Amino acid sequence: MHIRIEGLTHVYAPRTPAERVALRGINLKFAPGERVGILGPTGSGKSTLIQHIAGLLKPTAGQVLLDGIPAHASTAEARARRRQVGLAFQYPEQQIFEATVFREVAFGPRNLRLDEAEVARRVRWALEMVGMNPEEYGERVPFALSGGEMRRVVLASVLAMRPRVLILDEPTAGLDPQGREDLLARLDAWQRETGATLMVVSHHLDETARLVDRVIVLWEGRVVADGPARALLGDGCLWRSLGLVPPPEVTLLEALRQAGWPLSPDCWPREELAREIVRAWRERAGSGKAGSVGLFG
Q1: What pLDDT does 288 receive?
Q2: Sign for the pseudo-dihedral over CA of 257, 262, 266, 270
Q3: Fewer CB within 10 Å: N-end or C-end of the chain?
Q4: Which residues lie below 8 Å from residue 187, measured CB to CB, with a gap of 6+?
Q5: Cα–Cα distance, 46 to 215 (Å, whole number)
Q6: Three-state DSSP class for 204?
Q7: Helix 116-129 to helix 101-111 angle, to the nearest 10 degrees?
Q8: Alpha-carbon distance values, 265 to 56, 186, 225, 242, 253 (Å)
């Protein structure tokens, strides 16, 4: 799906004492199959932007076009486009309402008037895609699950609709390290299998680097950076200027480069950085620079 955002502005509670401008003249384009990270500090407009892409908000000014159709329009064509955009919010309890996991995941496909056999196939596929055994979880009560499990149920519910665009707001929040690794791998596999557009809102820069190819950075409702993920995520100066703490890997990379180590500024994610450090260490060892003087000698 081609997505185009033109002059998008959103004001909450306009002409009241609580008026707040969340987005200011945003212009963006997304091609089908892109993997995009949307980053920025709290209050930068990330959540408002993704809700506009999903057609959940009406712009104060400007528009969002989904294959050329205004996302917020009330026409049948616009509703069909919106159904192809899946959004999983940060707080899963806000999206769960059915009595069992199976019924929760089946709700969307049933609204598409699919036959029960196809509904069951989609539920099973979606639960397995997020790492949940359908036999084990299908009849369980969603609200009795852990926060991480509820998050997976919400994601399965979105995937069961077979969206052309998947938007995830802090997808790994509430998961332990092993759960984060597993979910990131499954999301990567899902995107490669389907070729759908993937948008991820996250504060975890390293996780974002592993999942996306392009990064958009918002600050006070404006786009302040838009470019290749490897270059932007490794830019410690950018993150500090936005009041964010760079990942430890970026701090280490900066220190090594300042010490004269021959490292690329965009050697991400951490596995690649580790390989680059080993390579550079061997080069320094071969030239006699990595002797007893220590790491930064």
Answers
A1: 63
A2: negative
A3: C
A4: 168, 171, 198, 211
A5: 12
A6: coil
A7: 120
A8: 38, 28, 17, 19, 7
In what helix (H) or strand (E) does residue 22 lie, and over which residues does it extend? strand 20-30
Q: Is the dihedral of CA 149, 150, 155, 156 positive or negative?
A: positive
CB atoms within 10 A of CB 257: 14
Long-range contacts of 123-128 (CB under 8 A, 24+ apart): 123/156, 123/160, 125/159, 125/160, 126/156, 126/157, 126/159, 126/160, 127/101, 127/156
Alpha carbon distance 267, 270 (integer Å): 8
What the block records as the tokens of 73 is: 């329009």
pLDDT tens profile 25-78: 999 999 999 999 999 888 999 999 999 999 999 999 999 999 999 999 999 999
Q: What are the residues facing 30 on neighbouring strands?
A: 3
Using the 8-state DSSP alphabet, how is residue 131 labeled?
Answer: T
**Distance in angstroms (rounded) separating the CA atoms of residues 161 and 129:** 13
Q: How many whole angstroms separate alpha carbon 14 and alpha carbon 16?
A: 5
Q: Where in the chain is the domain with CATH 3.40.50.300?
A: 3-243
Q: What would the two tokens of residue 56 be? A: 């959940």
| DSSP secondary structure of 28-84 | EEE-TT-EEEEE-STTSSHHHHHHHHTT-S--SEEEEEETTEETT--SHHHHHHHTT
Q: Which residues of 110-129 are buried (b: 16+ CB within 10 A; e: fewer)?
A: beeebeeeebbebbbebbeb
| DSSP code, position 89 | -
Q: Would you mind telling me the total number of residues written for the chain in this entry?
A: 297
Q: Give backbone dihedrals phi and psi of 109, rounded to 5 degrees, phi first.
A: -55, -35
Hunting for tokens 């002797």 — which residue is that? 291
For tokens 């196809």, the residue is 118
Query: And the tokens for 106?
Result: 């089946």
Helix (H/G/I), strand (E/B), else coil: 9? strand
pLDDT given at position 294: 47
Dig out the tokens for 43 from the structure.
């209050």
Residue recorded with tokens 């990270």: 37
Q: What is the CATH number of domain 3-243?
A: 3.40.50.300
